[in-house]
């Protein structure tokens, strides 16, 4: 039952907004008056979501950050999280670094860790991290995937494709300039969830989600949930200088349209909200780009500079079967 | 992204008390007026908590039941759960049976599944199940581990040791009568969390927890949290007919004092609550047994029939180091 010592040693911190934290059969929290609780769970598995020898600090950050991103996508304020880890052997150095990265993210977003469970597994390949996050959103104001309306502009935050470039660089499939390496690996290892943006988008955006599997794959969830289609302008999609300057054709399309792990937000809003959204971009010092329109025809179309339709099948996507 | 089809196919059910269920970036729930939210997370790992070839229906039931038991131990009403599974290959038969067992338990306790995540792993040994449960308890009425008072009676529900006997039988370490097999394997595979008891114990018990790691190991969590000691009467501990008739000495002590996986409740209450507790036992048709007293001296003592102190070190326990 070393579990308890492990948790006490590495995962017990002062909580900010929790009635009873780690150490009993359950934690106790109070949800503020007039608020709904938003809840999301994600599991990261060694070999599938990260390399077995991934840097523990960065892995700790990312394990929480990808869940924080789900709160951002709902317009919720993340407040509480539970963490369950199955790890090969009691490795205090690994756990210490992992917890430092995890709490670096928790402190950045003012989140309390309120529950923990650690289990010893057999092989190194078994490293499994399960995180559940909870946050508050004013009742009825959460931004769902199902609210997109015909005629909405489609927006994305930040540049897309950077994390995918970082991953392909690590896999040795892509050579990138040394000065670009840091930037693209940071996007892959230390994603910055757009919590502030999600909160401001309440009442502005009709639908929203975070881009974890690639723009087209994720956008299709909005289209399916809202029963609409979309037309995207390829050249309007923001990306990194390196991608814009060094990649083109199918390769370029792959990274910006289907590159995963960006954790930027994709949202739709009525056209008359454009000025408000550009003001938000200024206010948050975060690029927000209008990349297309929600259409009545239930298809996802991407147009190139010459307004020619791009064949998405080349990206391994069939309309509405991407998921 | 077959994840979405898997979840839709096996894990989407009608929800009873959820504002937004599976399918968006997060689920949305409302916590009732005047209630606190109780939250607990548990991870079950193949090879550590169950056999890789465990019956999927029973595994589904137990994965949820052990978490429901944490709600019972707090006096909370379980209402919502999220489930993350990492499984070796997309096995529809396994997932179908697992989800049937999981929902059998969910329906028994009126719990909504509000979040899901399934991941493909490499080896069969990697099967990992991560559950987080949430429930409601009237603000300030949760039964904590830290409330035990000197002079309190110590109570346990049901018989202890049955699950441990079932496990040792499976491991081939213990031969038991064929008519006893069913009873003891059921205790191991399909535990019955004591939710009704936990709710009734609000305002009666001073402290409570569920017995998952064995009576002594778990009781020590109460003693440590409450800064008290305890004296237990071995012969007052309820157990099964098979254990009482066929096991004795150290073997008997191992099963009733240190046998895990029982998921009965251990609680303490003032002596003048005894009649009320016996009435509860009648009302719930659930045996509740007074097995000892909370003491001022910070030690855990177990007395045999002749009021001789039993050496617990023989059970692998050192006082206050059992955890």
Compact overview of the structure:
Chain A is α+β, with helices and mostly antiparallel strands. Chain A contains ten helices and eleven strands. The first copy, chain A, has helices at 3-11, 56-74, 92-108, 162-170, 178-189, 195-201, 215-226, 241-246, 249-258, 274-284, and strands at 27-29, 35-45, 77-87, 112-120, 128-138, 153-157, 207-210, 229-233, 265-269, 288-295, 300-303.
How does this model look, in words?
- 2 copies of one chain form a homodimer.
- With 323 residues, chain A is α+β, with helices and mostly antiparallel strands.
- Chain A has 2 domains: 3-138, 60s Ribosomal Protein L30, Chain: A (2-Layer Sandwich); 145-315, Phosphoribosyl-aminoimidazole Synthetase, Chain A, domain 2.
- In chain A, 35% of the residues lie in helices and 24% in strands.
- Chain A is built from 10 helices and 11 strands.
- In chain A, the strands form 2 sheets. The first copy, chain A, has a 6-stranded mixed β-sheet with strand order 7-9-6-10-8-11, sandwiched between helices.
- In chain A, helix 3 (92-108) links the parallel strand 3 and strand 4 (112-120).
- In chain A, helix 2 packs parallel to helix 6 (195-201).
- Chain A is globular.
- The termini of chain A are far apart.
CATH homologous superfamily of the largest domain in chain A - what is it?
PurM-like C-terminal domain
Low-confidence residue ranges of chain A:
317-323
The percent range for helix content of chain A is: 25-40%
Q: Which two chains have the most extensive interface, and how many residues on each?
A: A-B, 67 and 67 residues
Number of strands of chain A: 11
By DSSP (H or I, 4+ residues per run), the number of helices of chain A equals: 10
């Amino acid at each position: 039952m070393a579990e308890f010592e492990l948790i006490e040693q590495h995962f017990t911190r002062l909580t900010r907004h929790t009635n009873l934290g780690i150490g009993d059969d359950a934690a106790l929290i109070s949800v503020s008056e007039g608020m709904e609780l938003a809840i999301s769970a994600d599991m990261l598995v060694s070999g599938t979501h990260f390399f077995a020898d991934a840097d523990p600090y960065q892995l700790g950050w990312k394990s929480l950050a990808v869940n924080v991103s789900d709160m951002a996508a709902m317009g919720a304020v993340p407040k509480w999280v539970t963490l369950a880890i199955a790890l090969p052997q009691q490795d205090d150095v690994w756990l210490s670094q992992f917890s430092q990265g995890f709490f670096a993210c928790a402190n950045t977003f003012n989140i309390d860790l309120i529950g923990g469970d650690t289990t010893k597994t057999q092989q190194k390949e078994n490293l499994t991290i399960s995180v559940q996050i909870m946050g508050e959103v004013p009742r009825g104001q959460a931004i769902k995937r199902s609210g997109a309306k015909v005629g909405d502009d489609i927006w994305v935050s930040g540049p897309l494709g950077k994390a995918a470039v970082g991953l392909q660089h690590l896999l040795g499939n892509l050579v990138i300039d040394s000065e670009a390496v840091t930037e693209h690996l940071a996007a892959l290892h230390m994603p910055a969830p757009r919590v502030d943006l999600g909160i401001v988008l309440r009442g502005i955006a009709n639908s929203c989600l975070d881009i974890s599997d690639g723009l087209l794959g994720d956008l299709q969830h909005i289209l399916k949930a809202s029963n609409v289609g979309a037309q995207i302008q390829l050249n309007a999609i923001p990306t990194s200088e390196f991608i814009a300057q060094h990649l083109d054709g199918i390769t370029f399309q792959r990274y910006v349209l289907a590159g995963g792990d960006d954790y930027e937000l994709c949202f739709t809003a009525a056209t008359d909200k454009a000025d408000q959204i550009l003001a938000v971009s200024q206010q948050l010092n975060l690029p927000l780009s209008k990349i297309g329109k929600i259409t009545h025809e239930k298809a996802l179309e991407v147009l190139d500079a010459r307004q020619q339709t791009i064949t998405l099948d080349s990206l391994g996507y069939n309309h509405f079967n991407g998921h």
